[in-house]
Each structure stands twice: as C-alpha cells, then as structure tokens.
Amino acid sequence: MNAQTSGELLGFAPDARLLIVNSDDFGMYPAVNEAVIRSIEEGISGSCSLMVPCPAAGHAMELLRRRPEIPFGVHLTMVCEMPRLRWGPLAARERVSSLLDETGALYPHHRIPELLARARLDEVETEFRAQIDAVLDAGLRPAHLDWHCLADGGRADVFDLTLTLAGEYGLAVRAWLDPARERLRGRGLPVIDHGFLDSFSFDPDGKAERYAELLRTLPAGLSEWAVHPGLDDAEARAVDPDGWRVRSGDHAFLASPQARELLRQEEIVVIDYGMVQRAWAGGLRRQPRGRGPRPPHAGAP
Asked: Which of 88, 203, 246, 273 has the maximal Cβ count within 10 Å?
C-alpha cells in the first residue's frame, strides 16, 4: 500500500494543487509589517513568520493580537544581514556568546559559515527558546517554526533541536531540503513535495511574469513559496537598499487582482501553516522541558 501524499495527509485529493504562500521577515521594519498584513488580508499570502528580535517586532505582535485568525510562525533568527538596521539576540549576550561575532553582534549574512562553525547547540537552544517564549508571553500562539537565512537551520543538529522544540510547543516545522523532507515524510508528516521557492532568488525585474508562470505550471501536490513583501517607501530604501525592490515586487504581485484570478483559473488551493500544524499534531513525540508544552494556535485554516 502506497504512503499517503502530503495533500492526502492534509485532507485533499492526490491530484490537488496546494500552495503555501508564507510571508517571511514580519517584524523587520514597519514597511514590511504593513505589506505582510496587506498580502494576507487583501492578497494571496496565507501565513507569515515573525522575526522576534527585530526593531518592529512589537508592532508586528500587536498587529497579530488584533488578527487572531492569521496563522504565523516564529522566524528563528541568528543572523543580522542589514548593516543599517541592527538587531541582536533576545537572550543575554553572555549566555549566547558563541552566536556573536568579535563585536558582540549577530553574524552578518556573508559570515554564516563562521557562525555555523562555532555556534554551541545549548546556546542556540537558549536563544530559540527566548524567541519562542517572547511570542507566547505576548499572548500569541504560533503555528510553526522556521529560520531566517538558514535553510533547515543550517546544521543537522540545529534542525533536530528545532524538531524537539516543535514537539514540545505543539508546532509544525518548515522543511526545505531533501534530507529533512524525506525524513519527515517517513514519519507520516506533511511536507512540501516540490522544490522550495525563496523570493530573494528571483531578479526583481519581470517578477510578476515569473510568478504568474509558476502558478500556471504548479504541479499537483504541496508546494511552498517563502515571499518577502514590503512597501516601497523612504524608510525601506534607506535601511534596506539591497532588498526593498525584492520586497516591493513581492507585495505588488501578492496583493494584485491578477494573482487572485490566476489561483481561481488554475484551481490552486492556498493553505496556511495553521492547517499544517493541525496535521502535525501528535506526529512528534513531545518531550516536555523547560516551560513545557503550550496550546496550539487556533486560527482558521
């Protein structure tokens, strides 16, 4: 007997075309926050991921408190890639010193190999717990965990740690690379069936046309797009000179009538991580540690 497909595990027919459109980097700065909300409420994005250490995270959490129906994840953050917009760890620096460079700051993107070579797993856990618990202490209930700038956490032991935390807190986990996907599929957990799309891998020029073509050719099964919507305003251009065009292009397409019409024409079902979380419930062995398990997010699918 064949194993169930991810779509079937989520309650869909085997030939259903399913798409997670998850807006990453929520909380980074105000123009991102506004665009993420618009992309969900007016567009085709179904969920988002919150960067808790970032300057606008408090504003993002307030937006989520007003919108309990929006499923969201914790975008676990150990990297600060923006020299004009700095953020640091939530845990006390002396408790996570292996995650910091010689200046006491989080590593920038181009030094990720150094971070991964020296990061102590116990200190990674300390920081990840601080970020998850900050969300829970704000009265919010996330649906999943993923990582900022690190595919599947960047290291196998970091991925394993994240799975343990997900089991404890009752969350799903984004799996991007083949080894993790195969492993989770073998445990009967729904994961994407096709290559993961990161919108920063696209040239901003012609992005709308590229997205439209991807929707027209979307295969049956579960796919995921990690998108990064943001508004084109003066602050975005000032603090995010390398990223604002990517973000504004994402927002323009996600919130467009064209995107909604393409989903209708192609009979594509956009799902969110709240639905994935419910399918994962009970699939991970819970190992209560620290503050113990929390109730899962109860947002609508």
From this structure: 273
Each residue of 3-50: pLDDT tens digit? 678 999 999 999 999 999 999 999 999 999 999 999 999 999 999 999
Minimal CA–CA distance to 255: which of 231, 273, 224?
A: 231
What gap in Å lies between CA 227 and CA 288, rounded to an integer? 33
Q: Is 31 exposed, middle or buried (0-12, 13-18, 19+ CB in 10 A)?
A: buried
Whether the pTM exceeds 0.90: the reply is: yes
Q: What is the pLDDT of residues 125-152, one digit of tens each?
A: 999 999 999 999 999 999 999 999 999 9
Q: 71 phi and psi, to 5 degrees? A: -75, 140
CA 136, 140, 143, 146 dihedral sign is negative
* Distance between first and last Cα of the chain: 29
Tokens 């986990």 locate to 173
Length of the chain measured in residues: 301
In one-letter notation, the amino acid at residue 121 is L
d(CA 153, CA 147): 6
Assess contact for 114 and 184: CB atoms under 8 A.
no
Instruction: Kindly give the pairing relationship between strand 221-227 and strand 17-26.
Output: parallel
The most distant pair of C-alpha atoms in the chain lies apart, rounded to whole Å, by 57
CA distance 209 to 252: 12
Task: Give the single-character DSSP code of 79.
Answer: B
User: Which amino acid belongs to residue 157?
Assistant: D
Is pLDDT of 2 > 70?
no
SS3 (DSSP) at 255: coil
